[in-house]
Amino acid sequence: MNIVKDKRPTINDVARISGVSKRTVSRVINGAANVGEATRKKIEAVIQELNFSPDKQARGLAASRSFLLGLIYDNPDALYIDQVQRGVLDICSAKGYELVVHPCTYKSDDFINNCIKFVKRSNIDGVVILPPVSESRELATSFQENHIKYVRIASLDLDDHANIVVSDDRAALSDLARYIVSLGHQNIAIISGPKSYFSSKERLEGFCDTLKQLGKKVPEERIIEGKNTYESGIDCARQLLIQTPRPQFIFANNDEMAAGVLKVAHELGILVPEQLSIAGFDDNLLASRIIPSLTTIQRPVSAMASLAATKIIAMIEGNEYNVEEQYLVKPHLIIRESTRKIDK
């Protein structure tokens, strides 16, 4: 092979050594489907041998796109955001895209215009939208009207399956309810997330509906709305743990709030899990490292983010993708030290 020396290899070098046109090399670089397998392998071998890295600006101009993906979110959980970014970046690295993050204020009056301006200003090819922002039908409609490609991550089937990755939170909380009843708990309490969020509603209803089917009911005074923050978990736990009779089990809408419950139990001298069982949702890094380790629902956040990135890139590049088979993900129960069977 005639290797190029003493200079940075170009796409012209790859084309010349491969014996194909520059356009064919460009198709391989951009992942186009209309290249024969033998030709593709030959070009990929030359690219590897030359250690060729395409100029991203030139690549973007040739393909009429920027090779930039956007990530839009309004979420106080830094661990969740980190998991999402890792999942998206795994796919971006493999496909030659860069990630641009954009925090927004979901409840602000101009948040939709803010998101649209971000996409246009940054020349973004497509965006992945996280909850609770992803729950906005108005944002999805505005993106459609402005021809902006997007994929939502959500807890409810809100869109065409090409445009969404759904976490089946309701089914996962049904599993948790069955587990808690099997432990013999009678006095059950809940710290929900903000009730305006679809994800909070899905988890609350999935848990309470299954409890009802099993002959258990959670009184209204034992359901307190939190803000999905550690501090709100503390505040809500203080309200619940002074009630008589005291709850035997508390489910918190996320691990941050569950950690707040653990703190209050420790302050009040309530033993976990001997006198109080606690469970959360997310299975972030905190859940397995606190003492006692937290029973929780593991949502495969990185895998969902990777799936969303794969779908948006397929959409951008016009590639076929089986959206019906891959849009729904079910979180699953992780049992750790913070729950135990009631002593008879």
TrEMBL record:
SUPFAM superfamilies: lambda repressor-like DNA-binding domains (SSF47413), Periplasmic binding protein-like I (SSF53822)
InterPro entries for this protein: Cro/C1-type_HTH, HTH_LacI, LacI/GalR-like_sensor, Lambda_DNA-bd_dom_sf, Peripla_BP_I
HTH cro/C1-type domain span: 10-57
Pfam families cross-referenced by the UniProt entry: LacI, Peripla_BP_3
Keywords: DNA-binding, Transcription, Transcription regulation
Residue ranges of domain HTH lacI-type in the record: 9-63
Matching SMART domains: HTH_LACI
Coiled-coil region list: none
GO molecular function, one term: DNA-binding transcription factor activity
Top-level lineage group: Bacteria
Protein name: LacI family transcriptional regulator
Top-level taxonomy: Bacteria, Pseudomonadati, Pseudomonadota, Gammaproteobacteria, Alteromonadales
